[in-house]
Specification:
It contains six helices and eleven strands. With 287 residues, the protein is of the alpha/beta class. α2 packs across α5.
Length: 287
């Protein structure tokens, strides 16, 4: 299969430089419109698709990002690998502002978002024990340049849009053992698994949240300043992905691309035809 690398960019990252045959395409999905048009093209001969998660101009809050439409649109464009790039706070002294963390686990504390493509009339359960793809994560680690990168970390996904209270920050850090905190990787990672797309998360640290005794509270001005440097390092990482991954996408050794093989529970004669139609891209392989 030809590899198509999809990049979902968060705060501070709104485009990919150097794309050949670049074009913005509008993708219609049964789940509504994606966050924005998707920028497509080739980078070092490998197909790429870039979507700004919040839309150009940052118009979507973390809660109003159309996550299902975004993942469905990527699937319709043939994306085989999604690299999520997002700004995050840190709960660890050694994970400092300006560092990157290649996330491998999540704690989902969001509550106001649709978290599945499936539902009444067509029920499915995918495994999320290991919510990111080790192969794709490893490629992200090797593609990073000029920035300190930590391999592995637990991402606490909060609803937002407000930042944490001090009590919450201490709970997440000291009791739950989370490493970084953000607002957008859930339900994105869950939906990517349902769509059988390899998914990796690159957390760009902008601050220490509110737990750090020498940091005080989250300072928006400092975050914006750090975002600029992080975005440049993220562009370098993305530029290295085609070489790290190659143009051909073999079957995922971790089963990301076969997640639905045994997931659908509803008997064929009991399935909701309308919902099945909406799942033509996401679950077409098994339906």
């Amino acid at each position: 299969m030809e590899r198509v690398i999809g990049v979902i960019g968060g705060s501070g990252l709104y485009e990919i430089a150097g794309l050949e045959q670049a074009a913005r395409v509008t993708v219609d999905t049964p789940w509504g419109a994606p966050s924005d048009q998707i920028l497509t093209g080739r980078l070092d001969g490998v197909k790429m698709a870039f979507l700004p998660r919040h839309g150009r101009g940052h118009v979507h809050t973390p809660s109003t990002v159309p996550y299902r439409a975004n993942i469905d649109a990527m699937k319709r464009l043939g994306v085989t690998d999604i690299v999520s790039v997002s700004a995050c706070g840190s709960f660890r002294d050694d994970m400092a502002p300006g560092d990157f963390v290649i996330v491998d686990q999540f704690i989902d504390r969001t509550f106001a978002r649709e978290k599945s493509f499936f539902g009444t009339g067509l029920v499915a359960h995918v495994s999320l024990a290991h919510p990111t793809c080790p192969t794709l994560s490893g490629a992200c680690f090797s593609a990073a340049r000029g920035v300190t990168v930590h391999m592995g970390g637990t991402y606490l996904a909060m609803e937002g849009p407000q930042f944490s209270t001090l009590a919450e920050s201490k709970l997440y850090r000291e009791v739950w053992g989370a490493d970084v905190i953000g607002m957008t990787n859930m339900p994105e990672a869950k939906l990517a698994r349902e769509a059988e797309i390899c998914y990796a998360s690159v957390a760009m640290i902008t601050d220490y949240d509110s737990w750090h005794p020498g940091h005080g509270e989250v300072d928006i001005a400092e975050i914006i300043a750090t975002l600029g440097a992080n975005a440049e390092a993220a562009r370098t990482l993305i530029a290295g992905l085609p070489k790290a991954l190659g143009a051909n996408h073999a079957s995922c050794p971790h089963g990301c691309d076969t997640a639905l093989t045994h997931a659908i529970m509803t008997a064929p004669d009991k399935r909701d035809p309308a919902l099945a139609d909406k799942l033509d891209a996401v679950a077409g392989r098994v339906l």
